[in-house]
Amino acid sequence: MEGFSHLDENGNAVMVDVTEKNITQRIARASGRIYVGEEVFNAIKGGNVPKGDVFACARVAGIMAAKKTSELIPLCHPLLLTGIAVEFETEEAQNSVKCTCTVKLSGKTGVEMEALTGTSVALLTIYDMCKAISKRMEISDIHLEEKDGGKSGHFIR
Predict the structure, then answer these.
(1) Which of 16, 22, 59, 117 is geometrically suited to a Cys-Cys bond with 86, CB 3.0 to 4.6 A?
(2) Contact (CB, 8 A) for 41 and 137
(3) Is residue 157 within 8 Å of 145, Cβ to Cβ?
(4) Does residue 128 have an active-site annotation?
């Protein structure tokens, strides 16, 4: 099955063999948004969410998710990540929160899936923390912003 890196010559799923690849500095940054509505937005900004500190909990969840990506996504390599940052930006005009997850390592394979997983789980955690206030929240716009390192080089969306 030429052209498909996760399939062998018989069409069987395989994890890509990175044994011969060079170790390089790799970084990936992904982002996404959760549209929460005015009531939830005000509760988050005011620190009045009954379950506690929304951003602290979501940050830890995003970090943990990035570290466990290979347990969630079939054929992902387990990686020794050297840096994970999860950041939030409130966007009052849209009653939304933007999440950005940046993942780094020195290794033989990229960290795009880890950054995307960290972003996704951080946003899901915001939903979970706030669902008692409103269930009308919407998660969207999850995408890779940038990656660098490895054979494919630098990508900026």
Answers:
(1) 59
(2) no
(3) yes
(4) yes
pTM, rounded to two decimals = 0.92
What is the distance of C-alpha 76 from the center of its chain?
14
Catalytic annotation, pick one of 8, 17, 53, 128: 128
Residues paired with residue 101 on neighbouring β-strands, in sequence order:
30, 86
Domain boundary assignment for the chain: 27-148
Of all residues in the chain, what percent are helix, strand and coil, respectively (each to 5)?
Answer: 30, 30, 40
First to last CA, the chain: 29
Write the pLDDT tens digit of every residue in 100-110: 999 999 999 99
Distances in whole angstroms, Cα of residue 148 to Cα of each of 28, 29, 43, 102, 114: 7, 9, 37, 11, 14
CATH no., domain 27-148: 3.30.70.640
The Cα–Cα gap between 110 and 107 comes to 8
